[in-house]
Every structure is written in C-alpha cells, then in structure tokens.
Amino acid sequence: MKKFFQAATFTLFFYGFFGWLYIAGSAHLHPETLAWPLTHFASWPREDTFGAACFAVSFVSLFAYMMIRDRK
User: N or C, which terminus of the chain has less Cβ within 10 Å?
Assistant: First the structure.
C-alpha cells in the first residue's frame, strides 16, 4: 500500500508541476490570456486559477512524497 501512495503522490507532483509550468510559460509569453477560461467547453476554471491549483497540488504532493518515501 505504501508503494501505491508513493507512486500516486509523485505522479500528482509531476503533473501538477508541469501544469503550473505550462501556465507560467503562457503567462510569460501571453499574459493577457490568464483571465481566459482554460477550455472553451466551460467558463471555469480560468488559466490563472488552474495555475494556482497546480502549484498547490504539486507542493502538497511533493511534501507528502518526501514524508512517505523510503530512505536509504
């Protein structure tokens, strides 16, 4: 069960970080798009909200991963 949580928290960290990195790059190149919806299918979430959520998920997941990983 521990290996499952290690894999899950690392996966959440990885995808959360790269989601945030995508939004950070987009904000650098096209800052006017941050207030736009993330997708044309729904009005929520906006790009800036998605970036903040990705950063939070990445931070919490990495913290959890570091707490439960096997130390050698």
Answer: C
